[in-house]
Write a structure and sequence with these properties.
Chain B: It catalyses: ATP + H2O + polyamine-[polyamine-binding protein]Side 1 = ADP + phosphate + polyamineSide 2 + [polyamine-binding protein]Side 1. Chain B: One of its GO terms (cellular component) is ATP-binding cassette (ABC) transporter complex. Chain B: It comes from Litoreibacter albidus. The structure holds two protein chains of two kinds. By secondary structure, chain A is mostly helical. Chain A has two domains: 68-174, no CATH class; 203-423, Orthogonal Bundle (MetI-like fold). Chain A contains 19 helices and two strands. Chain A has helices spanning 22-62, 67-72, 74-80, 93-108, 112-120, 126-137, 149-155, 162-170, 178-183, 203-234, 237-252, 255-266, 271-278, 294-317, 322-330, 335-363, 367-372, 380-389, 394-418, and strands at residues 186-189, 192-195. In chain A, a hairpin with a 2-residue loop joins β1 (186-189) and β2 (192-195). In chain A, α1 (22-62) crosses α19 and α10 (203-234) packs parallel to α14. In chain A, 31% of the residues are buried. Mean pLDDT of chain A is 87; it is low at 1-8. Chain B is of the alpha+beta class. Chain B folds into two domains: 11-236, P-loop containing nucleotide triphosphate hydrolases (Rossmann fold, 3-Layer(aba) Sandwich); 244-364, Beta Barrel (OB fold (Dihydrolipoamide Acetyltransferase, E2P)), CATH 2.40.50.100. A six-stranded mixed beta sheet of chain B has the order 6-7-8-3-9-10, with helices on both faces. Chain B is elongated and about 75 Å long. The model of chain B is unreliable at 1-7 (pLDDT under 50). Classes of the chains: A mainly alpha, B alpha+beta. Bound molecules: adenosine-5'-triphosphate (ATP) and magnesium ion. Magnesium ion binds at residues 50-51, 166 of chain B. The site of adenosine-5'-triphosphate has 11 residues of chain B, from α1.
Chain lengths: 428, 366
């Protein structure tokens, strides 16, 4: 029969010149290419891993991590497990003794104040209890000073309160959903999961406000940015360059300076109010309040994020050839129809890209709402910053951050389902 | 040069001028009458103002001076979308976000034509360009030639009486281009539409057109049917631009009985047909087609002037022979002869006598 490999029936595997199956030798050749490509991007991968993946993973972890109770009070955690707090009775001496031993050891290592601060997030006042008791318990002996129940209750009333022990029991597990519950205005109590009291429910409202205001900011950026991007793409080069410089100008000044400038403009004794009063449009005693509220935040952030909307729109519009509009008109379309049916649909990917960019940037924005937002115009990120730098409740900050991340991913997914992510173009 | 036969033109340009910058005239005094049903081609080198003329007709550029009329009505102040002129763009300009059928349906929708009628018309137009099965595709999923057909169908679907095409075949390869030339011509003839076609491919212009307007430097140099353009060029530019041409410079020695005696720079004398010359002593450039040059002196009239020529190169081209000669210090003198059994094959180095009928040698502007 025929031995010429080139004439082989197509049923068997195709062989390369040296007799190995073609698929195998192809994948071998490709593997070497892939390895080389991987080596080239290795520094970037390492950088991304260290600066992005690890911090996010640690944030996710921190939002549920709760080993401080079990680490600081190892014996108490075991002893209190069988206690039933719902009866309203205090735990028995065994628990108090375990607690005293744990505390004496913790005081020696100065770990008790940290635990106090941690539990204070759940029950206020508990922090000072730990600090005061710690000072006295430093001199106690774990064997000779027994029994401890009476002594501890003498030391501080709080140790005779059922809720103190209930909190310790509730938070004795190494992982907790407590931070997440707090982040959505709920709480983990000994009786189970309940809503926070009415006056403490602020975070959901803050999330909601952040979303709505980000949408409003994105919307105003589209409205203001579209005509500018259109001009940029359609003006002759020299004028377009000038306009481009104006668009990019904000990038050359510090964000802080720009935001502070808005403060100067908008405040009640500020430039705009002065002009309005001078022009007689507004009475001197009825100056407009345009700052330290939502209006101020929306205005300043629209201004600051506008370039992020204009640039992707512009780079998409630049690829739309003018002959499309001419063709539409030659086919009988009015200027408006030609724009709406032919130009606009082709510019949608730019709007999509700009919107995603602006929305995601604004949902996590911090400086501007902090400066011009007052109390009514702050975002969830300001709350996160507060918990990171002032209240030091990093667990709650991490839970809030995780929820924010989840919301963004969810919206991204929804956007992909509705608009299609291939419909997002940054140009080209 | 105005063609008098088309004075009742369907389209007419009347002393039209155009300047983009206020300093240079891109179109200088254009007068052109196009008859209904005519296939007119604007041919000319790059930058000669062809696209500009087309754009003024379509309404995307305004004439700086003069009047453009369509069906006797001045359209200077009518916006493009009300002119009802079909247009095929060089890059096709098919809307990328619409399917082929939606592209074709667009001009019908803006004319508020009902859905069923619209669909019928779209299908008919697609069938006409043999694209009936591609209605659901996006332009990006079509080959260049298929896009070209769709663009043509779109320009025709709303039954425009006048269709403008600006280098519609420029992006296609040679074979496809020749095929599409034939298609466009066939469809235009079948529908009886008037076509203004822009190209800088002279073969395209000669094979498709009823008349060709040769543009140069913002003016029509000659407006004539293809055969007349090739055989009777009225200026050196046209002679040079259309087809292959041999040119020799000289001075008119005498004009007698419709034959001009021209003295070349080398002192040789030749006979020529005086087209653009009238006076003795005038400078002229004579022009002769390569296939009209004779080696066989027996075929020439008694007393004809002949020239000595040295053979530089002989190229066998199958159906023809192409011989390059040095004639009166011109190294690029080409002679084309038919491949026939008795035809001589001149060898390089040989010196021969050449001549021509005086009527085939045109004395034009220098
Ligand atoms: N929008 C414009 N602004 C300024 N000058 C222009 C413009 N369009 C064309 N021109 C100039 O007008 C002249 C004629 O251009 P036009 O496009 O009509 O040439 P054309 O004959 O179509 O050439 P081609 O065969 O290269 O397409 C050129 O010199 C060109 O530079
Ligand atoms: Mg052109």
């Amino acid at each position: 029969m025929r031995n010429d490999p080139a004439n082989q029936e197509p049923t068997g595997p195709v062989l390369a010149a040296d007799g190995t199956p073609l698929k195998k030798s192809l994948s071998r050749a490709l593997r070497r290419q892939k390895m080389r490509a991987l080596l080239l991007i290795a520094p970037l991968l390492a950088f991304v891993f260290i600066t992005f993946v690890i911090p996010i993973a640690s944030m996710l972890f921190r939002s549920v991590e709760n080993d401080i109770v079990a680490n600081t009070l190892p014996e108490t955690v075991v002893a209190i497990a069988s206690w039933d707090g719902t009866t309203g009775e205090l735990p028995d001496e065994e628990v108090y003794a375990a607690f005293a031993r744990d505390m004496i050891a913790a005081v020696a290592e100065k770990k008790h104040t940290r635990l106090g601060s941690r539990l204070n997030y759940e029950l206020s006042g508990i922090s000072s209890m730990f600090r005061q008791s710690g000072r006295k318990m430093k001199r106690w002996d774990p064997v000779e000073d027994a029994p401890f129940k009476e002594k501890l209750i003498d030391l501080h009333d709080g140790w005779g309160d059922v809720s103190t022990w209930a909190i310790i029991q509730t938070y004795s597990a190494p992982y907790t959903s407590g931070y997440f519950l707090t982040a959505i205005d709920m709480q983990l109590t000994p009786e189970g999961v309940t809503m926070q009291p009415e006056d403490k429910r602020i975070l959901i409202r803050l999330f909601w406000r952040t979303l709505v205001m980000s949408l409003v900011i994105t919307g105003s950026c589209i409205l203001l940015g579209y005509p500018v991007a259109w001009l940029l793409a359609n003006l002759p080069a020299s004028k377009a360059n000038l306009l481009m410089i104006l668009v990019l100008l904000p990038f050359w000044t510090s964000l802080l300076v720009r935001t502070s400038a808005w403060k100067v403009m908008l405040q009640q004794q500020g430039v705009i109010n002065d002009v309005l009063v001078w022009a007689g449009l507004v009475a001197d005693d009825a100056r407009l309040i345009m700052i330290n509220n939502q209006f101020g935040t929306i205005l300043a952030m629209t201004h600051i994020l506008l370039p992020f909307m204009i640039l992707p729109m512009y780079s998409v519009m630049q690829t739309i050839q003018p002959s499309y509009l001419r063709a539409a008109k030659s086919l009988g379309a009015t200027n408006w129809t030609a724009f709406w049916r032919v130009y606009f649909p082709q510019s949608v990917p730019g709007i999509g890209a700009g919107s995603i960019l602006v929305f995601i940037l604004s949902i996590g924005y911090y400086i501007t709402p902090e400066i011009v937002g007052g109390t009514k115009g702050v975002f969830i990120s300001n709350r996160i910053a507060y918990h990171i730098s002032s209240s030091l409740n990093w667990g709650l900050a991490a839970a809030l951050g995780t929820i924010l991340l989840a919301v963004v991913l969810l919206l991204y997914w929804a956007y992909d389902r509705i608009v299609g992510i291939d419909n997002v173009k940054l140009g080209g | 040069m105005i063609d008098k036969t088309g004075s009742e033109g369907f389209v007419s340009f009347d002393h039209v001028q155009k300047s983009y910058d206020g300093e240079n005239l891109v179109v200088k005094d254009l007068n052109l009458e196009i008859a209904k049903g005519e296939f007119l081609t604007m041919l000319g080198p790059s930058g000669s103002g062809k696209t500009t003329c087309l754009m003024m007709l379509a309404g995307f550029e305004t004439a700086t001076h003069g009047d453009i009329r369509l069906g006797g009505v001045s359209i200077n102040n009518i916006p493009p979308h009300k002119r009802g002129i079909g247009m095929v763009f060089q890059n096709y300009a098919l809307f990328p976000h619409m399917t082929v059928a939606e592209n074709l349906s667009f001009p019908l929708e803006v004319r508020k034509i009902g859905k069923s009628e619209r669909e019928a018309k779209v299908q008919r137009a697609l069938d006409m360009v043999q694209m009936g099965e591609f209605g659901g595709r996006r332009p990006a999923q079509l080959s260049g030639g298929q896009q070209q057909r769709v663009a043509l169908a779109r320009a025709l679907v709303f039954e425009a009486e006048l269709v403008l095409m600006d280098e519609p075949l420029g992006a296609l390869d040679k074979q496809l281009r020749e095929h599409m030339q034939f298609e466009i011509k066939r469809i235009a003839d079948n529908l009886g539409i008037t076509v203004v076609y822009v190209t800088h491919d002279q073969t395209e212009a000669l094979t498709m057109s009823d008349r060709v307007a040769v543009f140069d430097d913002g003016r029509i140099q000659q407006l004539a049917p293809p055969d007349q353009l090739y055989e009777e060029p009225m200026s050196s530019f046209v002679a040079q631009f259309i087809g292959e041409n041999n040119a020799l410079d000289g001075v008119v020695q005498s004009i007698d009985n419709g034959v001009a005696l021209v003295k070349l720079a080398t002192g040789d004398l030749i006979d020529a047909n005086p087209i653009n010359v009238s006076k003795v002593g005038e400078k002229t450039r004579v022009s002769i087609r390569p296939e009209r040059v004779e080696f066989d002196m027996n075929r020439l009239a008694e007393g004809s002037h002949t020239l000595k020529a040295e053979v530089l190169e002989f190229v066998y081209m199958g159906d023809t022979f192409r011989t390059r000669l040095r004639v009166a210090d011109n190294d690029e003198f080409i002679v084309k002869t038919r491949n026939a059994p008795d035809q001589v094959r001149l060898q390089p180095g040989a010196v021969v006598d050449i001549g021509w009928m005086p009527s085939d040698c045109r004395a034009l502007d220098a």
